[in-house]
Structures
1.
Amino acid sequence: MATDALDQTRSGALAALGRAWRGLVWFARGVTGEAKYDAYVAHERAAHPDRDPMTAKEYWRCVYREQDANPGARCC
């Protein structure tokens, strides 16, 4: 009986730890911009299945070129 309660507590803690880790990974991908490239690829495949999406390197070059050409309200 006590073993069952301990097992449930451990599995609950592991589940919570897993959720926390997935949340941390999600946050880090958003901060670093990695999620933006994934969203771009998903859009390209859905909206333009006839052409290959840019590579990550090409995508970031395009993004940075656009930012340099149109700085907008950036602080730097």
2.
Amino acid sequence: MSGTPAAARACILAAVLCAIWCTLPAYTPDAPVPWGTAVLLAALGLGCGAVGRRSPSGGPGPVAAGAFLPILLAAAFLLPPAAAALVAASGSLAGRVEQPPYAARRIWRAAQLALTCAAASWAYAVLGGPATLGGGGAAPDFPRALLPACAAALAFSLVLTALDAVVLAAAERRPVLRSVYELLPPALGPHLVHALAGLMTAVLWRSPYGPLSALLVLLPMYLSCWVFAQYHRERSAHRATIRALVHAVDIKDTYTRGHSERVGRASVLIARELGMDDRRVEGLRFAGILHDIGKLGVPTRVLRKDGPLTPEERRVMELHPEYGHEIVRGIGFLDEARDAILHHHERLDGSGYPYGLSGSRIPEFARVVAVADAFDAMTSTRSYRRARPVPAALAELKRCAGSQFDPQMVGALDRALRRHGWSAADTAVTADEPREPFGAATGLRQDTPPIPHARSAAPLSGPFRDRRR
């Protein structure tokens, strides 16, 4: 724990002392603790932790963690708070820790879950939950049993989030309320689902069929956690792939740094305004982010040239959609996004490139990205011209609708911007932009200095063209 900040060490020590205090009633001679149940649940917790600890990095660690939560909540329903805290601490100590300091993180996690499980057990007992489980020949009391179980899940989420917020404030000086706001909403739903699985486990445990039948409830939960973990890892791999590709373009073409992310955001605005489903919205976000990936194949001297491009340089620049399509050809999850990368410089009147497609022959994703790309290009300051105001950029898009851009996509962007706006961060200068270190305490972007060599804005006449697009 030598690398842990002093405030965080104090926080961990306080949590450990509180957790020990919570478990003390279990050691009294007359404590009503069903030790057989406690030992079996603790063994299950240790087993889940051991599976997660032995699996390789990126392996089924999340599966073990997901399967562990119903055991914790079943312990909160079947045991008094002191014994439930012991079950939680034992399983947590066996779990895998991904990042250093390993000892500090493991001790903190054990103390945190002990306190959290004790709070859930206390809330469950206060609302009369144990009496609704049945047992001893009595049937479980449904749906009355759901209320204390949901209250226990809420207590579990609140205490877990509060403790996380406190330790983040101590270790990283992150505001407590901000952490609670970020961590609590995504935790409530999963904890409620795990509480229902824990409730079914507890009901079967008390039934004539006994603990063995209760363990069968955990098998489908384990499988569902495995499926979710696989999906989560796949999505993480997708995002890592896209981040790496975009970062490569940003390094090579410093004049348009940040442009890809903003085109992705504008594409999402248009897609949602058009009522596309979530899968296609995500695909359009990928298309917007990766639309210029083909610039990796364009010579750097052409991308960074300050003066006008020669006809030959222009022809080289116009090859970037085909380069991009070749780069992403083998990335299966991009699906329709590949068409947008190839055709986002086509025009409705057929005078675009690379293939001169016209009208509805241009893929829908490409028509969306074309509008988002042009909008961000006009509202961003580059080395060769200043940014246009958002109303002027929209006016130019509307003027070119029907010949260069799809009027439906232009109208969707207009409506989306009227509803949501386009923040200063979205229209910030994109060349040589200073960036705040990731995870900075403020989370705010520094003011960006003006770009050298900036020239006057391009006139609002003729079809919209930008030699960097």
3.
Amino acid sequence: MMLTATLASAAAADERAAAQVLAGPCAGCHGPDGHSPGAIPSIAGLPEAELLARMTGFRDGTADATVMTRLMKGYDEAQIATLAHWFAEVGQ
């Protein structure tokens, strides 16, 4: 039982690290962990469903933006879901 808990904890840590790496490029505009220091909106702590819908809209071209519509084309559905979850969680 203890080994199972240890493995589960290690897997969760790996998933968190992978999400943090995936979110790294976002820091250039949205600030570290989604906390923007300037005019670009902070995204940390926004509801996961809102983030997911917005990022998917950018990727699919149904949401207006200057740069995000091009950037999000590089992410698949699973990566967008990971990013939405990451930014929803880091703001709490």
4.
Amino acid sequence: MHKTDDLTVLRMKDLKDFIGLSRSKIYEMLDPKSKRHDPEFPRQVRLGTAAVGWYRGEVVAWLESRRQQRG
């Protein structure tokens, strides 16, 4: 069972504000060809032909996993 917050979709502006990274850094983490690729970073959700977003719950889980890695 998901909490409603987990299913909230963050658009790019909200995602940037939420995690404190730039648009270019986010797309670098998504790009498997980039040296900054992060395979654990949440995948985009297609919302329409030109619109994407990220589930807030997945972003929060990614942030918490990074916190745990750093101890």
